[in-house]
């Protein structure tokens, strides 16, 4: 039977935002050793998630949402007869959608008591100090006068992408919102193959674009050049977002930004070797096959999952920094190795 053999993670701030890293990674076991001993035949359930925060305070949203999501999922694993992934697919989708909703609600606490002053990057080397104002009731951060012409005011609207994997025995379930992604790596006849198990939620996804146009077309549109969700009506007119689903967006919910995840379950096969969960810092630089080859080079050489995740992230950042624009995003990865 296929099962989990090793798991590891690594994250790097890159250079785009200086030392600010809005990615967040979290790995947790659902059952303690004592709980496994008390429940004969129960297999450990592993929950792993990569979140990519965006906007001012996006790093706080990612952290709060990540802990709430993983804790709720582990609780559900314990309450479901210890076989979370064995329930019918519609019930599993409903359970994980509820977990994502709880994570979304938990992350909204950031808006209740935001810091009055923060430092936020202007570029890869400089930061500006911002002070919170509420003109006409709108929460926004205003930079110190010396940076006002360069930066301008920034509305307090933040969120995070999220991709979560749940592994128990030979069952794997992936749930995601946004553009962080998970790729399943297989070794077939000596060749490394990789396929994404996640759905990118952005304007280039026809179903998402049609949903925004159908349900919110009077207030928002999908920009033709970049596929961003673009608000053109109401008090938030002018706001743009690169994803159409995310956690933590308090004000953009009204314009179609959903926290409901896409859920996919698979039964692991003997040829399945590992799973790579990563933020778009990885996937904007390399495709699934290249990432899989880099991870497999480490694992086949006797390296651990953590070493493979570290190598993948460092290789990605190096390639991005050596690109023509020299711009490396926050970059994170979790590698799960199967027996």
Automatic annotation (TrEMBL):
SUPFAM superfamilies noted in UniProt: PP2C-like
Domain PPM-type phosphatase, residue spans: 6-338
Gene3D superfamilies in the cross-refs: PPM-type phosphatase domain (3.60.40.10)
Residue ranges of coiled coil: none
SMART domains xrefs: PP2Cc (SM00332)
Matching InterPro entries: PP2C, PPM-type-like_dom_sf, PPM-type_phosphatase-like_dom
Pfam families, per the entry: PP2C (PF00481)
This protein's name: PPM-type phosphatase domain-containing protein
Gene source species: Tetradesmus obliquus
Origin organism lineage: Eukaryota, Viridiplantae, Chlorophyta, core chlorophytes, Chlorophyceae
């Amino acid at each position: 039977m296929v099962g989990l053999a090793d798991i590891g993670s690594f994250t790097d701030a890159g250079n785009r935002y200086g030392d600010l890293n809005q990615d967040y990674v979290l790995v947790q076991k659902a059952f303690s050793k004592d709980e496994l001993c008390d429940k004969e035949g129960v297999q450990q359930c592993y929950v792993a998630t990569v979140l990519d925060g965006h906007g001012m305070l996006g790093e706080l949203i990612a952290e709060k949402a990540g802990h709430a999501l993983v804790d709720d999922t582990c609780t559900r694993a314990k309450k479901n007869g210890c076989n979370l992934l064995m329930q019918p697919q519609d019930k599993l989708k409903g359970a994980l959608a509820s977990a994502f909703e709880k994570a979304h609600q938990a992350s909204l606490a950031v808006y209740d008591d935001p810091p009055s002053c923060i430092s936020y990057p202007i570029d890869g080397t400089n930061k500006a100090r911002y002070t919170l104002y509420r003109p006409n009731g709108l929460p926004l951060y205003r930079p110190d006068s010396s940076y006002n012409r360069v930066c301008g005011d920034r509305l307090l609207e933040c969120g995070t992408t999220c991709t979560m994997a749940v592994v128990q025995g030979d069952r794997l379930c992936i749930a995601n919102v946004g553009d962080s992604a998970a790729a399943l790596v297989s070794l077939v006849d000596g060749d490394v193959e990789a396929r994404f198990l996640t759905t990118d939620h952005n304007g280039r996804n026809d179903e998402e674009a049609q949903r925004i146009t159908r349900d919110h077309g009077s207030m928002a549109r999908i920009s033709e050049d970049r596929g961003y969700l673009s608000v053109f009506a109401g008090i938030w007119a002018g706001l743009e977002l690169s994803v159409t689903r995310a956690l933590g967006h308090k004000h953009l919910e009204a314009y179609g930004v959903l926290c409901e995840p896409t859920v996919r379950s698979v039964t692991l096969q003997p040829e399945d070797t590992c799973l790579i969960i990563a933020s778009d810092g990885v996937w904007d630089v390399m495709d699934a096959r290249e990432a899989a080859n880099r991870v497999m080079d480490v694992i086949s050489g006797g390296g651990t999952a953590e070493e493979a995740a570290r190598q993948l992230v460092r290789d990605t950042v190096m390639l991005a920094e050596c690109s023509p624009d020299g711009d490396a995003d926050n970059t994170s990865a979790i590698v799960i190795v199967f027996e």
